[in-house]
Amino acid sequence: MDSQPKRKPNAREIAARIRDEIAAGTFGPGDRLPGGRAYAKKLGVSLMTVQNAYVQLRDEGLVEGVSGSGTYVRDAIPGEQGPREAAQRLTDLQAEVARVSAELAGLVERVEQLEAAVGPVKGKPGA
Fold it and tell me: Keyword DNA-binding on this protein (predicted)?
């Protein structure tokens, strides 16, 4: 039995989850997202966390809030990419950023190893 409690998702992670669902077609144009209170309870997070996730999705142009009714996946505007395509592009971009970040971290480690093997470089701060 696992003794550590399950970590609760943050707003960014909730937005990513919904973005993936929009990209996959689980939520399509005009579909209503889960109500904030019920979704917060289901995830074990505060209402504010879910609201922040919805704001992030709104800022990305994927959803729109309808006062007194809920949050809906935006309909595509003629000549503009639809929410499904936009969500897929954002998901792909996040994966590429993660890949590049990992590659850069590897390069930093290799440079540090080279510097340790070569020794201090003249003219470099701290050398």
Answer: yes
Please state, rounded to an integer, the average pLDDT across all residues of the chain. Answer: 86
How far apart (Å, rounded) are the C-alpha atoms in residues 75 and 103?
Answer: 37
User: What does the DSSP assignment read for 59-72?
Assistant: HTTSEEEETTTEEE
- pLDDT over 90 percentage in the chain: 47
- Cβ–Cβ under 8 Å, residues 14 and 48: no
Task: Say if residues 39 and 48 touch (Cβ distance below 8 Å).
Answer: no
pTM over the 0.85 mark: no
Domain borders along the chain are: 11-75+82-118
Rounded to whole angstroms, the Cα distance separating 4 from 25 reads 34
Look at residue 57 in the predicted model and tell me its pLDDT: 95
71, 63 contact by CB (below 8 A): yes
Closest CA relative to residue 35, chosen from 46, 50, 20: 50
Second CATH level (architecture) for the domain 11-75+82-118: Orthogonal Bundle (1.10)
